[in-house]
Amino acid sequence: MEEARYEYLLQLGDSDLILGQRLAALCGHGPALEEDIAMSNVALDLIGQARFWLSYAAEIKGGDADEDTLAFLRDAPAYRNVLLVEQPNGDYGHTIVRQCFYDVWHFFVLQALMQSTDTRIADIAAKSIKEVQYHVERSGDWVVRLGDGTEESHRRTQAAVDKLWRYTGELFRSSEAEQALVEAGIAVDVATLYEPWRAHMQALFEEATLELPGDQPMQCGGKHGEHTEHLGYVLAEMQHLQRSYPGARW
Amino acid sequence: MTVSEQTRFDINDVWQWLDAVPDPEIPVVSVIDLGIVRDVRFEDEQLVVTITPTYSGCPAMQVIEDNILEALRENGVDDARLDVQLSPAWTTDWMSERGKENLRGYGIAPPGESAGTQVIDISRITRSGRNVLPQTCPHCGSKHTERVSEFGSTPCKALHRCLDCAEPFDYFKPF
């Protein structure tokens, strides 16, 4: 059970961390000052939440592990994030659609985890969901503005939806670790979140004049360490300092 | 150590010392005004201060922790520990009235009531998100203001603008 709990905490923490790292790369490159700041704020929230999850994971692992060794000294196959968050930033429509898919899923996950029988998980979820509510509002607002914006912004946003949709299936498929914890009331059965997530997307997309893609094969594997080629590049940049100067401290 | 030595620090004094520790980004409010110090107690000879983080990713939190320990050391407490408690999650409702007044004087509109323990709900997200109430301009007192961005210069603040005096201002978000 402890091994499953460790794996699950990595799943939660790694997805937050990698998306936070992706967004942090936009700092100084946002399309407008306010957007630049907003993106960095969301990145900070996600990285802060990742620290809570990874610190807990490190305590279970024991030994010399801490949040930093988990973040900076694991290779891509040891990462448990979903594939969606490691996808490149692309244009702003791409960045926002990726964010919206994740934010709404993230909200429903945390909402369910507030009832986790593991009180530490419940506490982190209750803390994080207040921040994620702001994230949901913001990315949803942008999906509508871009989707129902100009012809060009609509075209690009729809293209992002069509391209990223294949990474949404994984969000609702449990890993073995998750399944073991669902029975103990520790983890949420993500399959049950699909309907509310899809309903939220449907309402949002109607307002944004965007179309939800039809059924198609889904890309999975992140929760088992099978990643797209993009994750290696993210880690190379994020881990550069600790890899080049092991043990370096601020 | 004798009993008298153990109790040479009055808990009320400790609260006062902590009240002199400012928020590093908004120095007109103390960590007490912010409501992040949840408990101060002795465990045997060790002083234990329990704090609750504001935003998960707030870069000021580490500085605040260091400053709290530093303030205790300056007052002669060598054996102190900080405990971080996540639950119940921090809310701006814990901010003191004095803190809110100081914010206003500093040019930051203080937070209104938060949703508190109400169930968080995302089902009514529309184009404009939640209703945005106009905040009172901390510079000229006008209510004729608008929100520029939900995200401001720090995670805890939103950016607003006064339509009368034309000054931008920060709004400490209810959270």
UniProtKB/TrEMBL annotation, chain A:
Range of residues in the leader sequence: none
Superkingdom of origin: Bacteria
MF GO annotations: phenylacetyl-CoA 1,2-epoxidase activity
EC number: 1.14.13.149
Keywords: Oxidoreductase
UniProt-listed InterPro entries: Aromatic_CoA_ox/epox, Ferritin-like, Ferritin-like_SF, PaaA_PaaC, PaaC
Keyword Oxidoreductase (UniProt): yes
Entry-linked SUPFAM superfamilies: Ferritin-like
Protein name: 1,2-phenylacetyl-CoA epoxidase subunit PaaC
Species the sequence originates in: Salinisphaera aquimarina
Record gene name: paaC
TrEMBL record, chain B:
InterPro entries named in the record: Fe-S_Maturation_MIP18, FSCA_dom_sf, MIP18-like, PaaD-like, Zn_ribbon_PaaD
Gene3D superfamilies (alphabetical): Fe-S cluster assembly (FSCA)
PANTHER family linked to this entry: 1,2-PHENYLACETYL-COA EPOXIDASE, SUBUNIT D-RELATED, FE-S PROTEIN MATURATION AUXILIARY FACTOR YITW
Protein's name according to its UniProt entry: Subunit of multicomponent oxygenase
Domain MIP18 family-like: 13-73
Record domain PaaD zinc beta ribbon: where: 135-173
Species classification: Bacteria, Pseudomonadati, Pseudomonadota, Gammaproteobacteria, Salinisphaerales
Organism encoding this protein: Salinisphaera dokdonensis CL-ES53
A Pfam family matched in the record: FeS_assembly_P
NCBIfam families xref list: PA_CoA_Oxy4
